[in-house]
Amino acid sequence: MVTNPVHGLPFLPGSSFTDSTKTAFHRSQTLGYRNGYAVTRRPTVGIGGDRLHYNQLSQAELDELANKAPVLTYGPPRPPPPAEFVPAHVAFDKKVLKFSAYFQEDVPISTEEHYRIRQVNIYYYLEDDSMSVVEPVVENSGIPQGKLIKRQRLAKNDVGDHYHWKDLNRGINITIYGKTFRVVDCDQFTQEFLKSQGIELNPPEKMALDPYTELRKEPVRKFVTPSDFDQLKQFLTFDKQVLRFYAIWDDTDSLFGECRHYIIHYYLMDDTVEIREVHERNNGRDPFPLLMNRQHMPKILVENAKNFPQCVLEISDQEVLEWYTAKDFIVGKSLTILGRTFFIYDCDQFTRQYYKDKFGMPDLPRIDVTKHEPPPVKQELPPYNGYGLIEDSAQNCFALIPKAPRKDIIKMLVNDNKVLRYLAALESPIPEDKNRRFVFSYFLATDMISIFEPPVRNSGIIGGKFLGRTKVVKPFSSVDNPVYYGPSDFFIGAVIEVFGHRFIILDTDEYVLKYMESNASQYSQEALASIQNRVRKQDAPAQDAPPQDAPQQDALAPGSERYCCASTMWLLGIELRTSGRTASALNL
User: Fold this and answer.
1) Tens-place pLDDT, residues 264-298
2) Quick count: other Cβ atoms within 10 Å of Cβ 255?
3) Residues of the chain with pLDDT under 70
């Protein structure tokens, strides 16, 4: 430690001496602790324990010394040099005054708005006294926005004066190119600048709002009715729970209508309805799975919403008084959805359990909606008029253009050219008809009968065809269900009534005997007995014949029995052969 041993000597290099008596050279402590906090304290001694001398002047003396001008020491103060010239474009570079304003624009061709408020920012550039008007860009406004007036000096009047920053203030109107702008406010820099220049600012005004823009900002629903129903709870509770109903739409009353099946899904999580169409294989319809997409289904509309265009706009709560809920879908009930009436005839097991737990409906039986075909209408034919066969007359009732009755082809092929011939006599009270003989021909292929009368010379009756081929109805048979004569009705001794004429069968040819023998099951005992009697008469002994000397009637005289048989044989072109005997042996 170098100190000055001699008091009063200046402390200069070369005049300082070391004090050998000092042994402590520590520094005084400048930090201390009070109540656990470190505080500073001003030391009173210096290094080595020497007492420090500090200024003991009062505050008044210190102030006097601070304000005392050193005139006597340095002389009077010199005037400062003049300030250096700084141009405006340097002094006011990038210094811009910003004002908020708006102007009103008329809208002549709109029914929703009559005028429009457009907000702008007016910028005043101090460096060259130019101005610009910029409109903030609003997305999807449909109006050209941005810089309305580019940066330039704007004329204030017709004399040629231009706007200056002294002319701008809050709460004033300025006209630029025929448009009047209302200045409502300015930024902080503009306020400080104008106040520094001694301009008193008007109080700020509220920015005018565009009425149409504010109308668009309003929510669609004017109000929301408070509800105790928790939609989130409904979603979490009934998620993936769907009621399934089976329904039909019966449109058979309309032209080309039909009965179609559908499946109706009711989603419990959000009360929406979906209708699916049930397609059958080869039904001829396009495979569209959905008849109606999943949506809320209105049940009752308000009175003014009857003509609401539902096909192009969605129905809101304002047009609906009541929506379809789960209690409206019940088995056995009809409901109208989108103009179609659906009848619910069944549901699945989950739906039955839900209605049992929720609404207390223990049983929802399935309803049979199967379309049963009506019983066939019995076709009643009109009474037979007597013309032609009844089968031919009935064809006029079956078709507009009658067709020939269907024939038994197998029977016609089997019995082709098979004819049964019989000899018959006419039963009549007229004496002239007693000796008349007729040949009946029964055609097995068609069950028709023809009658031929052999001509007799000098009888006075013209022979020939008595009846053409036709079916003959038995007497006392019903007109609606006629019974025709068959082969079993023709035997010796049988009475055949043909259209009011009664005939008695007298004899048959050999082919009839063979036919009756081969088809004995078709004939009655009386018919078989008549044939047996005929055969016995033919087999009688020759002694039964009349004596030779007895007077005999001319066998071939007209009217005799032998003449009739001979004429029958001539007509048939055959010879009767029975037991190996000729016709002469049979005493014909």
Assistant:
1) 999 998 889 999 999 888 888 888 888 888 988 88
2) 5
3) 1-11, 54-55, 70-75, 220-228, 304-306, 310-313, 540-588
Question: CA 389, 392, 397 angle in degrees (round to 5)?
Answer: 130
pTM of the model: 0.36
CA angle 317, 321, 327 (to 5 degrees): 105
The contacts of residue 209 (CB under 8 Å, 6+ apart) are: 117
Q: Does domain 88-215 have CATH number 2.30.29.170?
A: yes
Which tokens sit at 537? 């008469």
List, for residues 547-580, the tens digit of each pLDDT value. 544 444 443 333 444 434 444 443 444 333 333 3
CATH number of 231-358: 2.30.29.170
Strands 501-508 and 495-498 come out as antiparallel
Q: Provide the token pair at 3.
A: 């100190």
3-state secondary structure of 260: strand
What's the rounded Cα separation, in Å, for the pair 331 and 430? 84
DSSP for 318-354, please give it: GGEEEE--GGG--TT-EEEETTEEEEEEEE-HHHHHH
All structural domains of the chain with their residue ranges: 1-74, 88-215, 231-358, 414-540+553-586
Helix axes 525-538, 510-518, angle to 10 degrees: 140
Sheet with 334-337, edge to edge strand ranges = 290-295, 272-277, 259-267, 242-250, 340-347, 334-337
The residue written with tokens 């009621």 in the block is 243
Q: How far apart are CA 442 and CA 437, in angstroms?
A: 16
Contact 120, 177 (CB under 8 A): no
Kindly report the CATH number that applies to the domain delimited by 414-540+553-586.
2.30.29.170
DSSP element (H, E) containing 110: none
Tokens representing residue 388 in the block: 């032609």
